[in-house]
């Protein structure tokens, strides 16, 4: 079964979490920094709207015993960009487009364990295509936010903005 890929995603094999993550599954779950978690029984996905937050989480994964890839072994995790795909090569997972509600106009990026043939998709609790990043994805270079957005302030872990082109509110969920 594939897992939804939005924004910047980190994917992990559940087997890697169970065998290598310090403190095991319960500790892993307690350290997820936001509400983007979804799992399909084989893979776990955690997403980040700000790449810096994703890098901080990767540092935590490394501190808990997971490993970066080397020439003779694959990494215990992979990173995926919603628009670009795998950020680094990953042989143990595969990406593809999936339809939501069997609607060809509602396409999302999804990832599954290589060789898996399941088509049901796991999404975070409360996720809906309407208003999702898959429906309304915006991209821009880091550091150029002020050209596109007016910063309105922070509410908890949410940075609030106004889109200068449309006037619509936008938000970025932060890990801290």
Task: Characterize this entry briefly.
With 176 residues, this protein is α+β, with helices and mostly antiparallel strands. It is built from three helices and eleven strands.
Write the layout of secondary structure elements.
Blueprint: E1 3-5, E2 8-13, H1 14-20, H2 24-30, E3 38-39, E4 43-48, H3 51-63, E5 77-81, E6 85-86, E7 93-100, E8 103-113, E9 149-155, E10 158-163, E11 169-173
Antiparallel strand pairs: 1-8, 2-4, 2-5, 3-4, 5-6, 7-8, 9-10, 10-11
Describe this structure in words.
The protein is 15% helix and 35% strand. With 176 residues, the protein is an alpha+beta fold. It folds into two domains: 3-113, no CATH class; 138-176, no CATH class. The strands form three sheets. It has a five-stranded antiparallel beta sheet. A hairpin with a 5-residue loop joins strand 10 (158-163) and strand 11 (169-173).
| Overall average pLDDT | 87
State the secondary-structure class: alpha+beta
The end-to-end distance, rounded to whole angstroms, is 30 Å
Gyration radius (Cα, Å) is: 17 Å
Spans where pLDDT lies below 50 across 5 or more residues: none
List keywords for this structure.
15% helix, 3 helices, alpha+beta, 176 residues, 2 domains, globular
